[in-house]
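# nightly structure sweep
# worker-07 picked up a monomer target from the shared queue
# config: single-sequence mode, recycle default, output format = structure tokens
# input follows
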Amino acid sequence: MKVSEAIKNRHSVRAFLNNPVSTELIKELLEQSSRCPSGGNLQPWKIYVINKDSMNDFLKFQSEWSEPETPAYDIYPRDLKEPYKSFSKKVGEQMYGSLGIARDDKEARWKQVFKNYEFFGAPAALFCFVDRQMGPPQWSDLGMFLQTFMLLAQEHGLDTCAQEIWSMKQESVSKFLNVDDSQMIFCGMAIGYKDQEAPINQFRTERQNIEDWCKII
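# output follows
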């Protein structure tokens, strides 16, 4: 698969088949992804993989967790301005619309949101952590690492969904993974094979025209 094909085919999958994923394949893709750009070669990513029995153990652990949790960071800026606010609203309309969930059906919407915490049925997942001393430049390294992994996953027939919503579960995830306080969670990522028939996997987000965000001088 060409890189351009992987970019075109990759999208956030929110309904997975229960087909098993090779842990060795995930490890291989992670090793390849570590060749992504990294300022000063700091390689700030800390990755934790759960699969098979550890996935079952993690989901059980999450279902039994009852202590309050503090979000690791604000996923979106507060008082999000335009046009970003409209972009976010649009993708929500597309996603819930694909499922036939009405705008005022709050219960159904919350049920869909909580599927994030089951990795949308994916059999494998990873968590990306970073040392707390790192700043925005190193966070950009995380993004390049994760994008590289997602494109390599496409090459090997795997689908993914990067999930910043796991930043809301920092205490429970850190406890299960035995991560010390020097590290903070950035995101989780569902890994598996998408359900081709699931309605939620049929829509694609829109992108702005290049003229709206690029100025060639």
